[in-house]
């Protein structure tokens, strides 16, 4: 059950409320401008837009201010920023909502965050549908799945603008120097079959790929994820694409993990179990976290690691500090049908910009975001302002030492723009090497239809208690302590412990999102 803002905050916070109110200002009047596709506008009267945001730094840097100066001139607005310390952002957000003295444009942590849902229910956050035709860049660079997720009440109204998170089907960084040492001929597109990938892991483990004469390497670098579970080595490659429409049967939508009539998820488990049994995986994978796994990869103990392609140059740089011969490249694994496809869960949203009922000019507030997504604005969002953050030499950007802009990449992002995540300070040759890998990871995404939704059944005590058994059993199957066949019994128990209600509720939710 949702609670109101006033039920969430105690009376003892009056002092904090007064302090927050002292930081705020008011919006002035003005005519609503029309925005062209390049983000330009021609309003007659200047207006003030108050924005509450969560950035790593509470103070605006000169390099960030240089971007906003250009924005303010282009749109004839004045931006007033409210940026609490990041560590206390959620508390300050709730305080502002309770006080009623909130900004025109507010960053909420997510579309499922309680503060956002309450703000929508109480009318604090208003629908943006009627403004979207004035926002060509926002419309162009937002995923459909994100708009669907922001139909919060399922009433056709869209409650906010997503800060887009680029959906990707990431592959693996790999020791290119080891590939050369084992004599593997990599296809030009760097896409290999499951069988080829398995062969590489075996040779990285048993064929002395670093040529040091010792049996001290492993093919794959695993680790415990944030839920303290080991991720399967391969998953989408066996057809595990999350919640999708079925071809008939008891349910209209199903995921292989919970499908009693499919072997897909058992194939996923069996492959990871094979790799552990053959000792192709770092034996410490079941006890170390991601940072420790990265360290072991850098030290040359493992040769393949799941990673975003844009991080490959940094991994090579770190590796060369320990071994100058280190070469890092990238690899994708095709599915059993020879296609490259991978699932993306969630809604491609990394925060929501909510327009509040305090905004006297909601259209002008939204045009701030639209301008930043325009060609002119987004170039500065990605690379900074020339002459402030970098200078051009022979057509190449040369970044100025000691200059940083911690805000510019935390406001908007374009859907399908992987270049955004590639370090702008890399030389052009390296960027051109990495960009095709990033682009390929974006163009091969298949969205799971669940949109990150968690059915109410998942919060029932019997379901939550059984999750501990589920996680433990799945882990034991993957590392080879239990046979894969034990999954059938586990799944049957899951349905008895609330899984049936979970699947039904998920089906009802997905059906409500389909148009």
TrEMBL record:
Highest taxon, organism lineage: Bacteria
Pfam assignment, any one: SBP_bac_1
Gene3D superfamilies xref list: Periplasmic binding protein-like II
Classification via SUPFAM superfamilies: Periplasmic binding protein-like II
Keywords (A to Z) from UniProt: Cell membrane, Lipoprotein, Membrane, Palmitate, Signal
Residue ranges that the Swiss-Prot or TrEMBL entry lists as coiled coil: none
Signal peptide from the UniProt entry: 1-21
Protein name: Extracellular solute-binding protein
Organism: Paenibacillus aurantius
